[in-house]
């Protein structure tokens, strides 16, 4: 998609008087976008301000002046501007407990330790029933990966379907690599979003994720989910290759070929007791470069700064992300909150997963149209 959202199918005249077909306009627009993306990654930070202004305007024009801040139950959140401490409001649940067969360099299963364990369908329903009883709105269903990169969800499909029907919880499912059988099964569950980490470097996939899969596996995963009409919210982890930018641009290209409900961008957080604990994390500027490029490559897609980002530079990352046009931030810093207000944005909070931003935007735009009637 280009910066010009609507291109008429007719011959038009450019400033020099030449006749250009709509196909020609599309090609010119694609070239302009490629140049913008190149600038996002190559320009010195001090020269990015015009791009920030353009990106911010694009998002505000497309998605209104509302920004959503998300504080789900995975983290105890207690800030001067908002407090959300109930762990049942939207927790993460692992269907594999702490087990992950890939044993990735950046995680080694440590992220799974922060989730509620539910390794059988019966346990999963019990956990979700308790979430419902405690006033929670939903949960993230995740788990460690198998050797083929997938999360072992097939045995849980009937239970996921039952949770949606009986408990009416919002369900966000981290799928890992998707295969046809899983995509078709998930289509029957009515989940609210499928989350897929998209990696754009074969070397990164091999060295960090310990698998011989290629970038094609992520592209195909998005295709299979879309074919089955499942809302897809891809993730791109900036700096996943030992803190350096490597496959992020290709990951953006892969995502841009599809129709994601939203795109979540996060930054590598070096975790203790992992081989990457001493790796320098990506800078706020590196994270902002990827967000800027995403804005120009996918002007119709809502962008989110997700929950994972280095704590020591979180404030700067939040401010730059807002300037780059995000419509949502998970666990915002006080500086990010204040900057959003100073920028004239209307702030709204949600205790659900940030992947549900697309639903919040739909509801917001619908309310705006209803108000005009």
- Tally the helices: what do you get? 12
User: What's the level 1 CATH class?
Assistant: Alpha Beta
Number of strands: 15
Beta-strand residue fraction: 15-25%
Radius of gyration: 21 Å
**Largest pleated sheet:** 11 strands, parallel
Structural class by SSE content? alpha/beta
> What is the count of distinct domains?
1
CATH architecture annotation: Alpha-Beta Barrel
Order of helices and strands: EEHHEEEEEHEHEHEHHEHEHEHEHEH
List unreliable stretches of 5+ residues. Answer: 1-28
Query: Going by CATH, what is the homologous superfamily?
Result: Aldolase class I
Look up the CATH topology.
Answer: TIM Barrel
Terminal CA distance reads 31 Å
Overview of this protein structure:
This protein has 373 residues and is α/β, with parallel strands linked by helices. The chain has one domain (54-372): TIM Barrel. It has twelve helices and 15 strands. The chain has helices spanning 22-42, 49-63, 121-133, 157-167, 180-186, 202-209, 215-227, 248-256, 284-297, 314-323, 334-342, 357-372; strands at residues 12-13, 19-20, 66-70, 77-79, 82-84, 92-94, 116-117, 138-142, 170-174, 193-197, 232-238, 263-267, 303-305, 328-330, 346-350. The protein has an eleven-stranded parallel β-sheet, with helices on both faces. Strand 9 (170-174), helix 5 (180-186) and strand 10 (193-197) form a beta-alpha-beta unit. Helix 1 packs antiparallel against helix 9, helix 8 packs parallel to helix 9 and helix 10 (314-323) packs parallel to helix 11.
């Amino acid at each position: 998609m280009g910066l010009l959202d609507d291109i008429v199918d007719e011959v038009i005249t450019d400033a020099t008087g030449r006749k250009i077909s709509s196909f020609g306009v599309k090609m010119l627009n694609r070239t302009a976008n490629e140049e913008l993306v190149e600038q996002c990654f190559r320009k010195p930070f001090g020269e990015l301000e015009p791009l920030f202004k353009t990106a911010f305007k694009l998002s505000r024009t497309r998605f209104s002046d509302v920004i959503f801040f998300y504080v789900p139950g995975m983290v105890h959140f207690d800030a001067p501007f908002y407090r959300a401490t109930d762990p049942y409001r939207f927790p993460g649940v692992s269907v594999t407990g702490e087990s992950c067969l890939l044993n990735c360099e950046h995680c080694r299963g440590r992220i799974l330790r922060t989730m509620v364990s539910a390794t059988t369908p019966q346990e999963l329903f019990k956990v979700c029933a308790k979430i419902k009883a405690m006033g929670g709105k939903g949960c993230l269903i995740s788990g460690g990966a198998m050797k083929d990169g997938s999360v072992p969800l097939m045995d849980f499909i009937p239970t996921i379907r039952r949770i949606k029907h009986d408990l009416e919880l919002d369900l966000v499912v981290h799928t890992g690599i998707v295969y046809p059988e899983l995509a078709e099964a998930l289509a029957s569950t009515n989940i609210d979003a499928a989350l897929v980490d998209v990696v754009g470097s074969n070397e990164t996939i091999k060295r960090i994720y310990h698998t011989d899969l290629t970038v094609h596996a992520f592209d195909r995963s998005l295709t299979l989910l879309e074919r089955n009409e499942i809302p897809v919210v891809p993730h791109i982890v900036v700096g996943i290759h030992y803190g350096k930018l490597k496959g992020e641009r290709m990951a953006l290209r892969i995502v841009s070929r599809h129709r994601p409900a939203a795109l979540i961008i996060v930054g590598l957080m070096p975790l203790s007791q992992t081989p990457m604990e001493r790796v320098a994390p990506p800078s706020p500027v590196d994270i902002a470069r990827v967000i800027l490029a995403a804005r120009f490559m996918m002007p119709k897609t809502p962008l989110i700064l997700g929950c994972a980002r280095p704590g020591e530079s979180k404030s700067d990352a939040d401010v730059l992300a807002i300037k780059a046009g995000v419509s949502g931030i998970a666990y915002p810093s006080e500086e990010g909150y204040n900057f959003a207000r100073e920028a004239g944005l209307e702030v709204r909070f949600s205790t659900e997963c940030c992947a549900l931003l697309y639903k919040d935007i739909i509801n917001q735009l619908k309310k705006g149209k209803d108000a005009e009637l």
